[in-house]
Amino acid sequence: MMADEDGKPVVTFGPKSGECAVCGKDGPMKCGRCQVDFYCGRQHQVQHWPQHRKGCGSFELRESSKLGRYVVATKDIPAGAILMREIPLVVTPTYGPSEDRPVCVGCLVEPSVARQCPKCGWPVCGDACSVREVHQPECAAFQRAKYKLPKVREGGMSLNASVSAISLRMKKVIIMTKVLAELEPWNPDLWKFLGALRVTLACENQARGGLLRNLQSDHSPLENFLESADQMRISAILMVHYRTFKKDCDAAVSWIRDVAGLKWLTAEAVRRGAGICFINSNSCSAGLGRKETAVFAGMSLLEHSCRPNTDVLVWQREDGPAPAAGSTEYVLVASRNIARGEHLTLAYLHNFLLGSVKRRAQTLAWNFLCQCELCRDPSQRGLHLEAWCCAACSGKKKKAFPVTIHDMQNSWSCSGCGETGSLDATGGGAQGAQAQAKRLEKRLENYVGSTAKVPLKVWEQFIHDALWPRGPLHPTHSLVLQAKKAIVELDGVLVLKATLTPGLHCTINHPESRRVAAYCRDLLAVSDAVCPGVNWFRQQLLLVHAGVVEGLVEAQMESMRTMRPPRALEKLLDEMEEIHTELTRIAVSPKHKKTSLGNLEEIAATRNAFSVFK
Ligand SMILES: C[S@@+](CC[C@H](N)C(=O)[O-])C[C@H]1O[C@@H](n2cnc3c(N)ncnc32)[C@H](O)[C@@H]1O
């Protein structure tokens, strides 16, 4: 195998100005080495050095035949250190099999009533969004090609009418190229094509084009996988998926050039744009309810691990309105202590997804099979995320394990009775539990893909049906965790909006609060086992948990007859203090830190108010 090359600096693309890291005033001076912190002058730069040096100049870019380019720590990095600060080179609406709803192409939020851009017909919230900078390049290109989505029915959220019209045009191309599957209304592929187009057009942009074209746009021939029989088998699977990746790129070329008519873009340029988009996109969610997927100059160079040591977080300035799509700043933060020589890694996919789903996505989109610590451990740090309770010996709490995590036939073996099976096979003893698990997987897929909001009681029924002895699953099975995550996210959106709106208390107060708080605790425990420390998911979970507990505190205070705090209230205040202490510890942006510190002060004030009566 080719030896790793000598390291080079990682080139990032960051904001031009920022707030002084010490006093918060305008900071015209930027650290020239890491481009992360800004200063109002030399004095504050010197004063900030002890903190700043933790992340500054702490990594370099290397290359190998196995991983392509990857990033390595050149010194020990403490958890919480900010390593990169970037604005995306391109943002696109998030794409994927379940993204079949209109998203505003200006602000990337799902509008309650979708309107259409008067010039190109793509969905927008209103006039302001149709003239947003982020939408202008494709809007101008569609106009030049005289391509416009047809008018949607009056007041219609659904773009079905326009999309059936697209389908008609698409069908001609399908017959021509035999590449695309028949498009259904508002087919998720359209978002993928828009992403590919945005990247293709942005490659022409003076400031960002060079950095974009530098990113990986295709997959290498995988010669490194030919070392053993096992690897040859994996290699064969990757080859099949590689062909699908190529077809996806070809489909983008067909749609952009033949359907939308942007003939002046060469097939080669569009294929490269599509490849860059599909390989390097990072779904950011942006914490603002946006469907934002971003491509970065620096952060897109990191390799995947299911137990990553870094995470991408939204950088929120202390004041001012939330930044528009395409100008949000993101930071790459060390989620735990990283030793010198360790590769910097990111989780491309959420850990609660079923292993089989993750592996399929990894092979399809990125053409590799993860060999990280978590993937090599069939018990997955004792959580058994993919194992079900064996029907024959579940009373003894025995579980059926995957035989090897990369086994594409999904073979399983029970740790109790030793029975084996395969998810792909039909019939047979242990297959009862397998079949039940498979049915639950389908049911969950339907809920996740549903256009209507799935109510809490439906999710709870799912958990009830899935858990042993009614179903074959145990509390930390991936499907159960995904259902709990969906419940927490139902309320999470509320909380996140509230935390970003000054003066608005982020409380959730409804009869289910206690159960939602319990789900938060369960998920935090799992998150601490697989992805502990400073990361976006833990931060969101803690915020939601804080909001729910705050709601419970308020309800408790309202119902109190005496001023003496009951033990229940003290316990809730303890829980809130614990959550906000952790949020303060893991906060990286000034805004989050300030909010959490403010909440700690409020908790202390509440305690003081009650202490008089003790
Ligand atoms: C976002 S890019 C990362 C940067 C890329 N290596 C480069 O050279 O530009 C994703 C690609 O990196 C490679 N890669 C990332 N993580 C990997 C892993 N854990 N194992 C093997 N290959 C990986 C795969 O080729 C994948 O398609």
UniProtKB/TrEMBL annotation:
Domain MYND-type: residue ranges: 20-56
Query: What single Pfam family name could you report for this chain, choosing any that match?
Result: zf-MYND
Recorded hits in InterPro entries, A to Z, give: SET_dom, SET_dom_sf, SET_SmydA-8, Znf_MYND
The domain of life is Eukaryota
> What are the entry keywords?
Metal-binding, Zinc, Zinc-finger
| Name the UniProt record assigns to this protein | Uncharacterized protein LOC117654258 isoform X1
The chain positions of domain SET read 57-349
Q: GO: which molecular function terms? A: N-methyltransferase activity; protein methyltransferase activity; S-adenosylmethionine-dependent methyltransferase activity; zinc ion binding
Q: What is the lineage of its organism?
A: Eukaryota, Metazoa, Ecdysozoa, Arthropoda, Hexapoda
